[in-house]
Amino acid sequence: MSDVIKNRYEFVVYFDVMNGNPNGDPDAGNMPRVDPETGLGIVTDVCLKRKIRNYIETVKEDAAGYRIYIKKDVPLNRSDNEAFQKLGIEDAAGDKELKKKIKELKKDENVDAVVRDYMCSEFFDIRTFGAVVTTAVKGALNCGQVRGPVQLSFARSVDPIVAQEVAITRVAITTEADAENKSNEMGSKYIVPYGLYRCEGYISANLARKTTGFSEEDLNLLWDAIVNMFEYDRSSLRGQMAVRKLIIFKHDTELGCAPAHKLFDLVHAEKKDDVEFPRSISDYLITIDEARIPNGITVEQRD
Known about the structure:
By secondary structure, the protein is of the alpha+beta class. The protein contains nine helices and 14 strands.
């Protein structure tokens, strides 16, 4: 692992969707999430973190130090047990000898930190986003909530979106009984014809140093994951999705040189004058007010 990051960062991500559903709402029949007051589309931070995790898992293939803690079909306690086994604890609740061993370990005030540090060193997403790390033996060792240095906001569309329901048919019939009465089946799917979304993010060097050890190598991998988070996660339901712009604000210090909201206010995405209904990224202009960038801040852009 490389050195822990020493600079605070904020960043803005613009991504778009064409003829797809970027984040379905299970409480609304899986239609695209939308703010009912403004009509702006919403993509949750959880959805975006899943894409980043999937990218890391794809490119690193569970390499040491880059495994993923929150993943499909892997119970959290299975991963937790590894840390306990490193301390010589086996998961065998109710074993008197085990409880005695735990009691002895609890006398060491640093034992919970050892569990936490092991989990951070092994799992990229804990080191990055944090996690509520549960325990293999209930009530025994608890490293509690690991607060990650990288945090994302909900993404919102720049302009109101249209959630369009599209009827579809299929010739494959589900049951023998249905096959006797019909030759196809009807269904539907929701799409957004086009939407440009904006997400804002924060990276705390202070938390990285004090808690998880998020490193410069991790940071570079995170930028790659953000830019490419839709490339290896294609689905017909999500249509065409792509990250169009990543704007990074780097502070000269660990605690920062300017408030995050003032940096975010420098970035704008606006429709071109002759566009009424945007249908591609070319219908927008994304700009940074460079004249107002505070001292101690450098800006990098990635497409």
